[in-house]
Design a protein that fits this description.
Two copies of one chain form a homodimer. By secondary structure, chain A is of the alpha+beta class. In chain A, 36% of the residues lie in helices and 21% in strands. In chain A, strands 1-5-6-12-11-10-7-9-8 form a nine-stranded mixed β-sheet. Chain A has a five-stranded mixed β-sheet with strand order 14-13-15-16-17, sandwiched between helices. In chain A, helix 1 runs antiparallel to helix 5. The relative contact order of chain A is 0.13. At the A-B interface, helix 1, strand 1, strand 3, strand 4 and helix 4 of A face helix 1, strand 1, strand 3, strand 4 and helix 4 of B.
């Protein structure tokens, strides 16, 4: 075959990057489990009609076909690859409701696929890490306050720049627009969502074009400007003089989210009233997350509350969730050399090999080290010693072990090839420094 | 929407099963890393022409299409979902050869897709855990002996029935058939591969139908009957009186594999000369693995040496690898209740809630416990105490924490709801027994 080339939009990491990714995932998982989220995976495919229920994303769906079926009749339902983890999770909850305990909290770390135009930070295949809490019939609003705590702890467990979780509430916006006398709040929300892209005067024009007055447009823009890291945003909203029961509800819920987060992690969460989120299914709190210093790349972690996504007949499972764009986040950090591992291999020790006949002896040393949790390889060939040391050096393996040779006196020795220090050692007792046991994120 | 139903061939686990799967994967990963295998993932898709290079599996490939492209012209190369992890890995090695250190050892744990007819233990989407070692130009045969040690350690780290790794060598078979005067050794191999399905007399007939004599067919069957857990298989082969240089090479390589494994893990590996493996690309050692007590379900872990899979022009990267069929293995064990976790949630402690006003206090206790690695949830609503305890019981959460109430005297208390034992406790110091920290495999 000819040498293959990368596929645009389908990123693949090198081993060192994958090691970093795995440690990131381990830490996310650890935090999710500390909050009682159970792991879950769903199949990669969903029936196409389920995927197409959302207008916006449906254009991006990859459909599947069995090659075998091309000439004949295919007996299957039409399938597509999932484009997020929320739609499959909602389907899973409905399908398995009788076997789950509610409220049900799960995390899910999987690839998703979207056939959109590849560009910086936009992939066709990418990894997401989601948490969601769903309940039967009703979902208490305190879960909307818990989600940012989990995400804050998870992201702050990583050696990455600080994050800022920006929070808003759909009820607050809808109540405000209704109290203002605007007839189609969803339309206004979609317009305000464009604020960062097109600027305030263009937003005002669109609101007026949608039937609003100049004063209404101005009020909408004033609302979108409000931000605070405590409940003081409420005073700023009240000062705009608009009243509506839904507005009150939204303000109270948003205040609880911000204040709960402020006690737990000061500076993490900010009420940011311009946040709208494109997706239709959010009905309460919505979240977006900026990585400080990388704001222009957009949100790395988004979500919100959805009341009607998982429902079948009388069964309704309202939920709230958030999704970390892992590939997007790591792509940004790798591109700017802001995240790496201490070495590109798990191996801590290379056991040298004097001759092919002595391989069994080198294997025994490796087995003794592994039995005590020390990642160990045996040299591939009985090359000259310098070559074996260079083998370790090129891979970032910190220690080379010299077995006692039948032909020389003295016992086993181990060399730290960074410092050159060499000491007598027993494979049943020696340990590397804790920092050298495994590659670490840095 | 109507209540969704499962898709045949696309298994999904319940949370307790996924917890078990994750712990299985953690242990496999741990062993792979102890042997110096670096983690890797490849994209789920490959260009269709690459996937179709193998005749047999190509019928099972799922092809992909962007829904958007249906009415217009699609600008992409034709893509399909990978059906194993070896073909993508070979492509990855060729694509990134300049950035890798050889010999290169990696593990890869990912879903693969095959559009074959679903049946017991055969899925359309399933998880594989692969290890491979590739080198540039040549690959020393001792790696063929190392692979079973890794897999033996990995599988024996799990609370599952014993495994038997059955090993053969393609050179041994080909050399034997050639020494016997048979002209098309690949054809004979394909026939012998059917031995367990169709029996010896049908195999003999097929060999005769392929141009062999009765004596040759008898010799092939005699070879296929040989098995031993040490190098004594060699004597049994020699006793058949066939000679060929390739036969000698194969015997020596197989003897090294069996003897290396015998020193490391007596009883793990058996030279089993009927093992052929269907795939064309194997050129040396081949492996299949039986789960003792589940032999009729076939191999749960297979692989072999391939010399020509990864090659482009003058660059050749021979390799050896093996693949654990994780979904297949777990499906068998789940179906026979042979593998489970101690509880279906990560949560060790439920913090009770006296009133919604006191939620912040319960949150602080939860945060203190989590800070010390104890997975903790706060009760969803301030229900009656009995109801909060039943909430924990239904989920298998072993401990319920009672915060000191503003309205009652005394400090915090924690109750083991299995024994009923309740003690005074400080959220900054109390620890559950180690066995209750996390769900464990059993």
């Amino acid at each position: 075959m000819t040498r293959p080339t990368p596929l645009s939009g389908f990123p693949e990491w090198l081993p060192a990057q994958r090691l970093a990714e795995q440690q990131v995932l381990d830490r996310l998982r650890r935090t999710f489990e500390l909050y009682g989220f159970a792991p879950l995976e769903t199949r990669a495919v969903e029936p196409l009609d389920q995927l197409l229920r959302k207008g916006e994303t449906s254009k991006e769906v990859y459909t599947l076909r069995r090659l075998q079926a091309v000439d004949g009749v295919d007996d299957e339902v039409s399938l597509g690859l999932h484009f997020d983890l929320t739609v499959p999770f909602a389907r899973y909850v409905l399908e398995n409701a009788g076997k789950l305990q509610f409220p049900f909290r799960r995390y899910q770390i999987q690839k998703v696929w979207r056939g959109e135009k590849p560009q910086a930070g936009r992939y066709r295949e990418f990894l997401q890490a989601d948490i969601d809490i769903v309940d039967r019939d009703t979902l208490p609003p305190h879960y909307e306050a818990e989600i940012p705590l989990v995400i804050g702890d998870a992201l702050r467990s990583l050696p990455i720049p600080a994050v800022r979780i920006m929070v808003n509430n759909r009820k607050l916006c809808e109540g405000f627009y209704r109290g203002l006398g605007l007839g189609d709040p969803e339309e206004i929300l979609r317009i305000v969502d464009k604020l960062d892209k097109i600027g305030p005067s263009a937003v005002a024009e669109l609101i007026i074009g949608a039937g609003g007055t100049e004063a209404q447009a101005k009020a909408c823009l004033a609302l979108a400007e409000i931000r605070s890291q405590d409940a003081s945003f409420a005073d700023a909203v009240r000062a705009l003089g608009v009243e509506h029961p839904l507005l009150d509800e939204g303000i109270a819920e948003l205040a609880a989210v911000v204040e709960t987060a402020r006690e737990h992690s000061p500076g993490l969460v900010e009420a940011t009233l311009k946040i709208a989120r494109g997706l239709d299914y959010y009905t309460g709190t919505v979240y977006e997350t900026e990585l400080v210093g990388y704001e222009k790349y957009g949100s790395i972690c988004s979500g919100g509350r959805y009341d009607n996504l998982a429902s079948a007949g009388k069964d309704v499972f309202p939920g709230v969730g958030i999704s970390i764009g892992v590939s997007r986040l790591l792509g940004l950090l790798f591109d700017s050399d802001a995240l790496a591992v201490s070495r590109p291999t798990p191996t801590a020790v290379l056991v040298a090999l004097w001759s092919e006949e002595e391989r069994a002896g080198s294997n025994r040393i490796a087995a003794a080290l592994r039995a005590r949790g020390i990642a160990t390889e045996v040299a591939p060939v009985p090359a000259k010693l310098g070559k074996q040391i260079r083998y370790a050096e090129r891979r970032g393996i910190p220690f080379v072990w010299f077995p006692a040779s039948a032909s020389a006196e003295g016992g086993d020795q181990v060399k730290d090839i960074r410092s050159g220090e060499q000491v007598a050692a027993d494979s049943g007792a020696w340990n590397p420094p804790a920092a050298d046991m495994a590659p670490t994120l840095q």
